[in-house]
Amino acid sequence: MFGFVIGWQEAIIILVIVLIIFGPGKLPSIGKALGETVRNFRKSASETDTDNGTEKKEQ
């Protein structure tokens, strides 16, 4: 969609950086907030697709 893919090496590097910056205690709350954000974004995108009269492709 955006023209880039994050591999497992990049994901591990990002996770290590997040652990260093925020510490392991805040990691669950950060993950929860990120999950809720992604869920709301997908819900909004889905509602926009149905508002435009387009059908979602089944994969």
From TrEMBL:
TM regions (residue ranges): 6-23
Topology in membrane: Single-pass membrane protein
Compartmental location: Cell membrane
Any one of the GO CC terms: TAT protein transport complex
Keyword Membrane applies: yes
MF terms in GO: protein transmembrane transporter activity
Swiss-Prot/TrEMBL keywords: Cell membrane, Membrane, Protein transport, Translocation, Transmembrane, Transmembrane helix, Transport
GO biological process: protein transport by the Tat complex
Family, as annotated: Belongs to the TatA/E family.
Quaternary structure (record): Forms a complex with TatC.
Function: Part of the twin-arginine translocation (Tat) system that transports large folded proteins containing a characteristic twin-arginine motif in their signal peptide across membranes. TatA could form the protein-conducting channel of the Tat system.
Protein name: Sec-independent protein translocase protein TatA
Species in which this protein is naturally found: Carboxydocella sporoproducens DSM 16521
High-level lineage: Bacteria, Bacillati, Bacillota, Clostridia, Eubacteriales
